[in-house]
Amino acid sequence: MRSLPNRPNSARPTVHAIDLEEVAHWNFPVCHVPLLPFQKSSTIQSLSMLLLIRRRSWWPPKRSTTAAADMVEDLDERSAEHWLARARLLLPSALAKSRSAASGGTRGFAGRWKSIASKLERIPPCLSDLSSHPFFAKNALCLEQLQSVATTLAETIELAERVSGGDPSVGKLQMQSDLDVLSGKLELNLDDCRLLIKSGVLGEVALPPSPEGTSSESNIRELLARLQIGHAEAKHRAIDGLLEVMREDEKSVVAALGRSSITALVQLLSSTSSKIREKAATVVCFLAESGNCEGLLVSEAVLPPLVRLVESGSLVGREKAVISLQRLSMSVDTARAIAGDGGIQPLIEVCQIGDSFTQLAAAGTLKNLSAVVEVRQSLADEGAIRVMINILDCGAVLGAKEYAAECLQNLSSGCNSLRKSIVSEGGIRSLLAYLDGPLPQESAVSALRNLLVSVSMDSLPSLGLLPRLVHVLKDGSLGAQQAAASAICRISGTSEMKRLIWEYGCVAFLIKLLEAKSNGAREVAAQAIATLISYGPICRDVKKDEQSVPSMVQLLDPSPANTAKKYAVSCLLSLSSSKKSKKMMISHGAIGYLKKLKELDVPGSKKLLERLEKGMLRNLFSKK
C-alpha cells in the first residue's frame, strides 16, 4: 500500500493507486475535497468524494501499524463528533466486508460472519440515538462509547481483510477465537449504547467540581452508569470510584441507585476477577447495612452469588458476603430463600473455620435462619446443632456465643426431635456453662427452659441447674430473669424439687420480680410462687416477706393488660389463713379489686373476697 507523500500544500502530489479503505483510517474532520483539474479517473473521483481533511493540513498523518491502534491515539484531543463521524465512515465498509465473508463461506465461518453482520446492522440506530441527544457531545461516557464503537468497526474491517486475504499465519482455531471475541465486543457495544440512553446519564451536563467532602449527583450517576457500560477494567475503575464516594456520602449513593445499577452490582459479584468480586461485595455490604435496599437487592437475585462467595470467595469477599447475608436474613422470606439457595452448609463451614469476625456474622445468619420454622430441620440435618454447641464451648467472641444460644433456643422451641438432638449432643451442659458468665443472657436460659421437658427431673440436681437459675435471677437481665422464673415453673412439680428450690433461695428473687416493670415478668413470677407456695417452708417465707402481700395485691388490678391477676389470687388465697396477711391485703385495697375480679369470674376471687370480708366483720365486732 502506498501513502500520499507528506508535502506542503503548494506542491501537487502524484496520485498513485489508492485503496479507499486507507482513507477510512485518516484522521480528518468532515470536509469534502473538491475535484482537482487533473483528477479524471473514477478512482480519483471516488477519492475526492470520501476524503476527509484536517483543518491544518489535508495531508494524511502516518498510519499506525494497525487500524485498531490508530483508533486510540490522541484520544484526549478528539471530540465525540469526531468519533461519531469515524464510526459512520467505517460502518458501511465493515458491514460490506462482513457480508462478503458470510456469503463466501470463508474458511467455514459463514455463520459467525452472518451473526457479526446482523449486529453491525443494529449499530446505525444506536449512533442516531446517541447523536440526537442535545448533550451527547458534552458527556465523557458518550465520547468513550463512540470511540469504542469505532475501534470495534476498525477491528471488524481488519479481521475481514485477513480472512479475505487468506493469511496462512492464522490458524482455524485462532480465527474462530478472534471472531468470537469480535462478536462479543459488538454485542457489548450494542448493550452499552442502549444502557447509556436508558440510564439518563446523557442528560447530565458537565458541572463545576463539587465542594470538598461532597459528591455531586451527576458524578454519582456517571459512576453508576459506568458499572453497566464497558469492559471489565472500566467497571473495576468505576466500582473503585463508587466505594470512595460511599465512604464520604453513602446517603447520596443510596438515593441515586436504581434497579439497573443494582443489577449491574449483582452481576459483578460473579466477575471473573476476584478483586472486582471483592469490591462489588463491599458495595453490596454497604447497601445491605444501610437498611434501604434489601428488597431491591433480593429481587435482583443477589442471594445466589453471595452464597457462592461465602462458599469459595476470597477472605475479603467471604467476609462481606456473610455480613450481607446476616443483614438480609433478618427478613423471614429472605432467610427462607437463603436456605433454598444452598446457603446453610457454607455458613456452617464459616462457623467452623472462619476467623472470629466472619464466624460472628455466620452465626448471626444461622440464628436468623433458625427463626423460620420450616428451615429448622434442614439446619439440624446439615449439622448446625453441633456447630452451635461448639461455638458456646469454644467461641472467641461473646456475640457469636449469644447467636449460638439464640439459634439453639429457636431450634428447641417446637419440635421434640430437635430438642432430643440438642440434649444428646450435650447442649444442656454447654448452655449451663455459658450461664456462668457475669451477664447471663436470656437466650441461653430460654433454650434451657425449652429443653427441660426432654430431661429427667431426677438428673437436674446433678447438672447444677438451680445454682445457675439463682445466678440468673440475681444478676441477669429482666428477660433472663423472666426465663429463669419460667424454668422454675416447669421443674417445680415435685416436693423434692420444691425443697431444692427453697434451699437454693430462689423465692426471695421471685418475690422481688413481682415488682418488675414488665407485665410478662410479673406474671411468670406470680405463677412460679403460686406453684411453689404449697410447700410449707416456702409459704412461711412468703408470709414473712414484707413486700410479698403488697406486691400481689397490686397484681389484682382487673385491667385486661394485667395477665398476672389469676396467679396473684391463688397466692393470696394460700396466705389468707394468716390474720396478719389478711389485714395487709385489706389495708392495701384488695377487697375493691376482688369485687371487680368476682364479676369477671376470675378463679378463686369469690372465695378470697368472702374470707377478707368475714375477717373485716370480725374485726369490726371485736372493736365494739
From TrEMBL:
Q: What is this protein called?
A: U-box domain-containing protein 4
Query: Where in this chain does the record put each DUF7032 domain?
Result: 100-201
User: What species is this protein from?
Assistant: Dendrobium catenatum
Fetch the SMART domains from UniProt. Answer: ARM
Identify the gene encoding this protein: PUB4
Q: Which domain of life is it from?
A: Eukaryota
